[in-house]
Structures are given as C-alpha cells and as structure tokens.
Write a structure and sequence with these properties.
Blueprint lengths: L3 E5 L3 H13 L3 E5 L2 H10 L6 E5 L7 H11 L5 E5 L4 H9 L4 E4 L4 H25 L1 E4 L2 E4 L4 E4 L5 E2 L2 H12 L5 E2 H9 L4 H18 L7 E5 L3 E5 L2
Parallel strand pairs: 1-2, 1-3, 3-4, 4-5
Antiparallel strand pairs: 6-7, 7-8, 8-9, 10-12, 11-12
Length: 233
C-alpha cells in the first residue's frame, strides 16, 4: 500500500510539481492550498495519512496553527514543515510542536523524497512493533489486546469483553499448568465467594466454546475443584 501524504502548499507551481514528483515516487498525495481546506481534508480521514507536509506561510493561517489543530484532533499525527523561514526560533517552535522534520526552501526534491521515505519507514516499523506488542499468538489462536479481537482456527474474528481478554491472557501466561480458581478470583474480582465463582464459570465457558474451533488442539481444561489449565500443544 502506498503511503498517503497530506501536502499543504499555496504556491501553485511548486505544489503541482512536488505533488507529481511524489506520486511518481510511489506516494499517494492529497494536495491542499489552504489551511482550512487541509484541516477539513484531515478530519474526513484522520487515520489515512501517514504524514502531513505543511508550508508555514499559508494564505489563511500559518502552518504552526494548522499543525496544532491537527495534533489536538489526533495526538498521534505525524507532520513535517516546509518553509522559506530560516530563523532558529521558527525551527525550534516547529520541533516543539512535535514535527518529525523541518525543511527550508528552496529544497532538493530528491532529498525531500528521501526524508519522507525514512519517516514513513520508521512509522511503519513502529506500528508493526506496536501491533506485535498487542498480539498474543497461541497456536492457531490470535488475541489482539488492543481491539479485544480473537481469531481461532482461521474463523471470523470474535470480539471479547475486556475481562475475557484479560482472563485468556492470564491463562496463557500460566499455560500448560494448573491455575487455581481462588487465585483467579482474587486477581480479577478481589474476593473468592460463590457469586464471583459463578461469574468466573460464565467467562470460562464462553472462552472454552470459542477455543473449540482450534485445529491445533488448544483448549481450556477444567480440573474439578481446583482450577483450570490452558493446554497448548
């Protein structure tokens, strides 16, 4: 998939040439000539853009204000500034706002492409690492702790409750060994009594039904009167 860029530049000739060159370099580019237009474009698809490239001197606002509004809407937004300003205070101000880079005009277009590629490559690796940190693989079972989704044996993903996901993660941490009922109840419900035990049984029953689709044989076994084992071959 091509990295998608939001490019904000009011100089028509420069904007057109830069857009065409970036597209030739395998980027998808949405070009806006005003801060208002760029912000509206961003609001329509805030998660679509890998990077926003902002000229500081725009006809209706300055790029710093635009970047600030974007960050207020999405604190994880990534942006860099393009500007004819060379004052140190402007550069520091841009970086203080969270810019990943600050390039002064006139710039070499190939250098711009290289910087954008380096940035998007780092972001891709960062996202992949975050996805990996949020994912637990148990045989043919995939648990995503962030989205609370569970995929078993290639079947359609199921959405778990927060408690179900936490319980499955806890059992996985103690896989192939007995986890006592009382330990689970104290950890997740704060006390070991009959009613809390019934709640635990409901969660375990639902998880066991979901894991029955596992072709690798992963399952939750009930050790009567003691607890449970997440058996992972």
């Amino acid at each position: 998939m091509k990295p998608k860029l939001l490019y904000v530049e009011d100089e028509t000739d420069l904007g057109n040439v830069t857009k065409q060159y970036l597209e030739a370099m395998n980027f998808e580019v949405v070009w806006c000539t005003t801060g208002k237009g760029a912000y509206q474009e961003y609001l329509q698809q805030p998660d679509a853009f890998s990077l926003t490239i902002i000229d500081i001197q725009l006809p209706d606002t300055n790029g710093f204000d635009l970047a600030r509004k974007i960050v207020e809407h999405n604190k994880n937004a990534y942006f860099l500034f393009l500007t004819a300003r060379k004052e140190k205070k402007d550069r520091l101000h841009g970086l203080d706002l969270g810019a990943v880079d600050y390039i002064t005009k006139p710039f070499d277009i190939d250098e711009l492409v290289l910087r954008i590629r380096n940035i998007t490559r780092r972001l891709l690796h960062s996202t992949a690492a975050q996805d990996h940190a949020n994912t637990i693989q148990i045989g043919d079972i995939t648990l995503n702790k962030e989205s609370l989704s569970l995929a078993v044996g290639g079947h359609t993903r199921t959405t778990l409750t927060q408690r179900e996901a936490e319980l499955l993660e806890y059992l996985y941490a103690h896989r192939n060994s007995i986890v006592k009922r009382e330990d689970i109840l104290i950890r997740f419900w704060g006390e070991n009594d009959y009613f809390m035990g019934r709640s635990l049984d409901v969660f375990i029953s639902r998880l066991r039904k979901l894991l029955r689709h596992s072709v690798s044989g992963t399952k939750i076994e009930n050790i009567y009167g003691v607890g449970f084992i997440l058996s992972v071959p």
